[in-house]
């Protein structure tokens, strides 16, 4: 009897909490997208600033890397996960963004960072329009092959124009640190990580708003059935080009953030392996969700780190140690897809659902 009364008392105590939580969740979802997404981005930025305040320079670099990878994968998410266009050349847009940023810093040092970012987005979007218009009639493996050729051929321009693009050594430059008003308050690495995340979160707000609006519905209609979308009056070619434009802008901005964070732009950083890694990270994180971009970026940065630490702890040979992070990532990708086809985001959503039902 005592146990039964305790159970009834516990149930009465938890019902109001569940009701309040459900009410807050409904109120949050009822907010307009233009209010909800910037508030979420502001909370994420505050969390990043708090996190970098207790980490060192090396960890700040990794946190910043998660930021620009997340933006690149989110742009790929919009192109593949929402509009259904397969691209194997997303690293090429990061190449354009990184070299545009490097050239601007070297030749126009008076330009502020935000202006460099805007110019980078404009150049990347222009490249996206050209690629999107040229491949608008291609589908499936033909589209994948065309974008793969872009990823293979573009880095070779650095060897063709060594005086401008630095050849195989690339371009190195110095970036400005924190403003004088913040000297002694934040370190240079903290400032760079915060700048990268602020840029990435602003980009994510744009991508999430696009996805929640009319254009996002058109893209999903194309992904589900292109013929039906055309019969419904959706301009198929124009929507595909716009998807490429937005995705290229995100990739270019991510490349600019990478160049800003590392202070270099080298062709070896933008090989085909980068494009394939972004695609693998997108699948691992989860197709069809912006959260998938975050989990994919975390895996892309930290799985490699854990693989390197494991190889170091086992004192493996150089060849084995260099390939262990790739094997580590591949095994994780296979396991997650076999068990949770919706990726890491699907796994965490399912676990969260089990926890809520178990309360």
UniProtKB/TrEMBL annotation:
Q: Which is one GO molecular function term here?
A: branched-chain amino acid transmembrane transporter activity
- Source organism, top-level taxon: Bacteria
Q: Does the keyword Transmembrane apply?
A: yes
According to its record, how does it sit in the membrane?
Multi-pass membrane protein
Membrane-spanning ranges: 33-54, 66-82, 88-106, 113-136, 142-159, 194-213, 278-303, 323-340
Q: Where is the signal peptide?
A: none
- Cellular compartments annotated: Cell membrane
Keywords from UniProt, A to Z, are: Cell membrane, Membrane, Transmembrane, Transmembrane helix
GO-annotated cellular components: plasma membrane
**Main localization of the protein?**
membrane
Listed InterPro entries: ABC_transp_permease, LivM-like
Q: Write down the CDD domains for this protein, in alphabetical order.
A: TM_PBP1_LivM_like
Q: What is this protein called?
A: Branched-chain amino acid transport system permease protein
Native organism is Streptomonospora nanhaiensis
Lineage runs: Bacteria, Bacillati, Actinomycetota, Actinomycetes, Streptosporangiales
């Amino acid at each position: 009897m005592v146990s039964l009364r305790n159970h009834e008392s516990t149930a009465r105590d938890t019902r109001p909490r569940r009701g309040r939580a459900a009410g807050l969740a409904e109120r949050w979802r009822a907010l307009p997208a233009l209010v909800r997404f910037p508030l979420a981005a502001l909370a994420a930025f505050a969390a990043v600033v708090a996190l970098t305040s207790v980490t060192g320079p090396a960890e700040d670099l990794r946190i910043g890397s998660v930021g620009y990878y997340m933006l690149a994968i989110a742009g790929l998410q919009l192109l593949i996960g929402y509009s259904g266009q397969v691209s194997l050349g997303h690293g090429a847009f990061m190449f354009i963004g990184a070299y545009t940023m490097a050239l601007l810093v070297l030749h126009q040092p008076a330009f502020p960072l935000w202006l460099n970012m805007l110019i980078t987005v404009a150049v990347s979007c222009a490249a996206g329009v050209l690629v999107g218009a040229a491949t608008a009639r291609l589908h499936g493996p033909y589209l994948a092959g065309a974008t793969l050729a872009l990823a293979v051929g573009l880095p070779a321009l650095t060897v063709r124009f060594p005086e401008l693009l630095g050849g195989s050594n690339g371009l190195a430059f110095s970036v400005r640190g924190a403003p004088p008003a913040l000297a002694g308050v934040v370190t240079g690495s903290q400032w760079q990580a915060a700048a990268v995340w602020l840029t990435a979160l602003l980009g994510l707000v744009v991508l999430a708003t696009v996805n929640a609006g009319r254009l996002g519905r058109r893209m999903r209609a194309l992904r589900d059935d292109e013929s039906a979308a055309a019969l419904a009056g959706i301009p198929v070619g124009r929507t595909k080009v716009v998807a490429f434009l937005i995705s290229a802008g995100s990739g270019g901005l991510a490349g600019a953030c990478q160049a800003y964070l590392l202070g270099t732009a080298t062709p070896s950083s933008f090989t085909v392996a980068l494009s394939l890694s972004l695609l693998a990270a997108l699948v691992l994180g989860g197709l069809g969700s912006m959260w998938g971009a975050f989990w994919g970026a975390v895996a892309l940065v930290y799985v490699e780190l854990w693989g390197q630490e494991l190889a170091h702890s086992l004192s493996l040979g150089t060849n084995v140690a260099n390939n262990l992070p790739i094997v580590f990532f591949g095994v994780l990708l296979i396991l997650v897809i076999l068990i949770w086809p919706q990726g890491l985001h699907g796994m965490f959503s399912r676990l969260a659902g089990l926890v809520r039902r178990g309360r």
